[in-house]
Amino acid sequence: MAGLELLSDQGYRVDGRRAGELRKIQARMGVFAQADGSAYIEQGNTKALAVVYGPHEIRGSRARALPDRALVNCQYSSATFSTGERKRRPHGDRKSCEMGLQLRQTFEAAILTKLHPRSQIDIYVQVLQADGGTYAACVNAATLAVLDAGIPMRDFVCACSAGFVDGTALADLSHVEEAAGGPQLALALLPAAGQIALLEMDARLHEDHLERVLEAAAQAARDVHTLLDHVVRQHVREASILLGD
Amino acid sequence: MLKSKTFLKKTRAGGVMKIVREHYLRDDIGCGAPGCAACGGAHEGPALEPQPQDPASSLCPRPHYLLPDTNVLLHQIVSAWRPGTWASVASSLRLPGSLETYVEQEQGENANDRNDRAIRVAAKWYNEHLKNVSAENQLQVIFITNDRKNKEKAVEEGIPAFTCEEYVKSLTANPELIDRLACLSDEGNEIESGKVIFTEHLPLSKLQQGIKSGTYLQGTFRASRENYLEATVWIHGDSEENKEIIIQGLKHLNRAIHEDIVAVELFPKSQWVAPSSVVLHDEGLNEDDVEKEEEKEQMLKTAVSEKMLKPTGRVVGIIKRNWRPYCGMLSKSGIKESRRHLFTPADKRIPRIRIETRQASTLEGRRIIVAIDGWPRNSRYPNGHFVKNLGDVGEKETETEVLLLEHDVPHQPFSQAVLSFLPKMPWSITERDMKNREDLRHLCVCSVDPPGCTDIDDALHCRELENGNLEVGVHIADVSHFIRPGNALDQESARRGTTVYLCEKRIDMVPELLSSNLCSLRSNVDRLAFSCIWEMNHNAEILNTRFTKSVINSKASLTYAEAQMRIDSAAMNDDITTSLRGLNKLAKILKKRRIEKGALTLSSPEVRFHMDSETHDPIDLQTKELRETNSMVEEFMLLANISVAKKIHEEFSEHALLRKHPAPPPSNYEILVKAAKSKNLEIKTDTAKSLADSLDRAESPTFPYLNTLLRILATRCMMQAVYFCSGMDNDFHHYGLASPIYTHFTSPIRRYADIIVHRLLAVAIGADCTYPELTDKHKLADICKNLNFRHKMAQYAQRASVAFHTQLFFKSKGIVSEEAYILFVRKNAIVVLIPKYGLEGTVFFEEKDKPKPRLVYDDEIPSLKVEDTVFHIFDKVKVKIMLDSSNLQHQKIRMSLVEPQIPGISISTDNSNMDPKEPERKKMKLKK
Fold first, then answer.
1. What is its main location (chain A) (predicted)?
2. CA–CA dist B810, B788 (Å, integer)
3. Bridge-partner residues for B162, per DSSP?
4. Tell me: the pLDDT tens digits for B629-659?
5. pLDDT tens, residue by residue, B535-563
6. Buried b (16+ CB within 10 A) or exposed e, B856-873
């Protein structure tokens, strides 16, 4: 590993945070009028935009329609200017396909798909700036967008990443921390029930430490939930004032 | 508050990358002063002293904290040894991350200036902050910097600031502190002769260029112990030729100091020289006799045959200094009132150091520590400053301290953090400990050790099974159960690497509670163990091997002598004795088989001191005695080590910690073969087996000690055995033991390698869980490197301790004459061994005040002709031994020739034989 000290002796991380602290989160719902639902989120320097269309009739081949539930279609893309090096990222490359698939799994678990049989829900997520934890930012943005579209869900889906450095679990990794190459875990949580919608792990981590890292990620996800909940309530309040209730 | 930092970086491919990083400024970092209401309990970690107890300073009479800037901290860290002087070091370093003291780099400001400004801001913040905290105490923070501009700016901003020198001089209570300041100011050198002695060192950038292009070579500088004008540089890298480069002469050495990483320039072949075999010590008192030096240098260049020439070069620059504080003594300057003195380090490879002190008279005759500050081009010696006074020379405590420091043996008491990981007393085996553990308390286990041994790490048992086979068990203390990976206790033991046994003292690797109690397999108590159990037939062939963690209850702790007595006496037939007899029988078969395979039996003169129980002075010397039981225990330990090595290598082919002993290159044996030839014996060295056989055959009926001498010489030809990680090497062979694979498993109390091996084995049998570092071969290789270093140092320290006690012994004994054998022949001296004391020494034929005798040295045989007498290896001589105290620093045993008599050189035998006091002394001893 490089000479970079990810966790100082005093317990501070490279960017001044403590081990369990999140980066600053700012979010907005209803950023686009055309879409059924939309949201924008900033987690530190990671910025993501999510747009939701649906539920609507199946587009394209009818054969894809599911008789008992809605089809969740997720597409992930990242802007050419999202990373330090400008790079064209064509649609349908391996990484975005995988990310799309993961988002789909996550939201199939959260959205009450049974309520809309034979229809389709589209979730489009774009990362505008990537600074670590893109999956988490995408999930959090998409949750807000789905809520904005008024699609019934079991619960919020809140996601957060966590890593493990020098025997300490770090929540919400930044790009520098991710690039250092330690184990990294991404968790999407349904906070009310404490159910896990998705769990992914890169690199090897000893079984003994898993629980601690998992708990750090879960705690961070619950913190994210508190913040998102606040954002949603604020949005609803503003909207209802506009409606004149 | 959030700050964002944007900067551009060039990528390796040549592109430009823009990096955006955020930085969170915290508002919860406390000032660290206890009782500060504003910060509350926000501060963690080391705190400031509530009331700074600084020595009164005439510059700032109020109580104050000091805040040194980075340069002061780096250069004066040695003076910071005095606790309490630099109180706020820790907190000053962390402050720049805090909200109030964050400083952004301004346009046109470089990083250093920004840091200086940040420290000033911190100092200012501290002063204002502390004002609020304790109005009545009037605490002040004083900024210490050696940078003039920085100081001016600080004063402008209203911060009390001083230079380091100003402040230390103002300390009325501690005048001696000024000596400890590193002298960085150049003013001190102007008195030296303006003559430039050395060529300038090239700057680093040029060196790197040169190394890349191959004009210079990079290597580690190793000064010669015997000749201060000669050194070798061990070139880094894998190239086969030019591995060692000889540097000769003061100018070519060019201010490099032992262990520095240097760049050297290779001379053309015509200028190559051979390593001189002259022993030369820097004794000139007059500092700047450069011409004299040249004369001495001429002495080195003697005519030698073509093939003896070795690559030669000169030091052109220093890549990295590896200075450390050195132990030694002050050679007081002849001029009265002078404050400049020369310091002579105890390590002869280090040049003398010029220091400035006002307390020369108090420091005379004391062992002191000195740090080097620099070596200007016009100075014969490096400049340094006094650091610490260790105590009177010759005192046992001082000398022990010196030899521990000089061999870099960590010997401080264990820290609180380390001790906190010890099990709580009273300790007992719990249900949880029994998990994955076999109960072997019913077995008749016993331990056999040297007398007085308190750290018993092995025990044995042997019993007959129902099928007629024998079950043999080796039980090793389960230290890895108590030392968990990664905690402070583990890190400390890893750092120490080994227990160091000095003559009257043991420097433990693990705290005493473990080494002498919980891990020591004492008799009649339940102890946790790691057992290696074999099923063998009566022919000592292994049918089955298994390993298990266990609980044992040793039935007896015996000494080698006691065990031997039990085996020999026919009257005793209890369980322990039958078990011992079984073990002994098997061990003999095992040993025979091992020797047949080509294992070497080497010899080294080992001595033990009999200590006076009250004064701890050595009373008598005794060479170690070997009994059958010694080799019995050894045999089973070897077997256990080999079995474990096989098992862990099977399980972890990439990261098993093993031990290898490389076969020495044939050139190492030259001296042995030549020596044997001179006695008409032939030593074959092509394989270990043939060496062992020819050593066995090499006996002379008229000279019974010859065989031992040959074995001692053979030992000197050997390479060091080393630890290594199996994934980093592919030669596992252990030459000395003639085993294809070997490791250390049997002494976890005193060797860290064994703890790692225990952990590996525990994982292999599923008794314990693994951890990331254990399966990281680079980390393991680092551990091995440290262990090899510590083992070597421990060995040297042990030898130094023996040498010191030998001196004490001869001090009390006076002058003695003894028979000795010549081990080596040098150009101007012979090295002799005195079998009675296991003592080795050098007899010089050149003395300072006497006319030089005619010396003819023949390298081929090798022999030395002094006047008309010829000395060969293994010749029997008689020497007189006495303690030479003329040099206080290196009191040494001095030997001079008695027989054969050479007029003008040897000393007459009369009156030297026995000190008249001797019989009296002996009587007194008896009375005690």
1. cytoplasm
2. 33
3. B144
4. 888 888 899 999 999 999 999 888 888 899 9
5. 998 888 899 999 999 999 998 888 888 88
6. ebeeeebbbebeebebbb
- Can you name the residues that pair with B342 across neighbouring β-strands? B331, B354
Dihedrals phi, psi of B568, to nearest 5 degrees: -80, -35
Q: Per-residue confidence at B910, pLDDT binned at 50, 70, 90?
A: very low
How far does the CA of residue B725 sit from the closest CA of chain A (Å)?
A: 20
Rounded Cα gap, residues B590 and B651, in angstroms: 26
Which spans in B698-815 are helix H?
706-717, 752-764, 777-813
User: Which strand (E) or helix (H) includes residue B556?
Assistant: strand B542-559
Contacts for B194 with CB less than 8 Å, ≥ 6 apart:
B378
Which pLDDT band holds residue B288 (cuts at 50, 70, 90)?
very low
Q: Cα distance from A134 to chain B (closest Cα, Å)?
A: 16
Taking only the tens place, the pLDDT of each residue in B577-612 is: 888 888 999 999 998 888 888 887 766 656 666 666
Task: Identify the contact set of chain B against chain A, taking CB-CB distances under 8 A.
Answer: 2, 4, 11, 15, 17-26, 44-45, 94, 97, 486, 769-772
Each residue of B596-625: b (16+ CB within 10 Å) or e? eebbbebbebebbbeeeeeeeebbebeeee
Q: Which DSSP string do the residues of B652-718 spell out, in sequence order?
A: -SSS-EEEEBPPPPGGGGHHHHHHHHHTT-----SSHHHHHHHHHH---TT-TTHHHHHHHHHHHHS
How many CB atoms are located within 10 Å of the residue B397 CB?
11
Chain A residues interacting with chain B (CB cutoff of 8 angstroms): 10-12, 15-17, 23-24, 44-45, 84-85, 129, 131, 167, 174, 176, 204, 206-208
Distance CA A7, CA A168 (A): 9
Is ipTM strictly over 0.85? no
pTM beyond 0.80, yes or no: no
| Phi, psi of A209, deg, nearest 5 | -90, -15
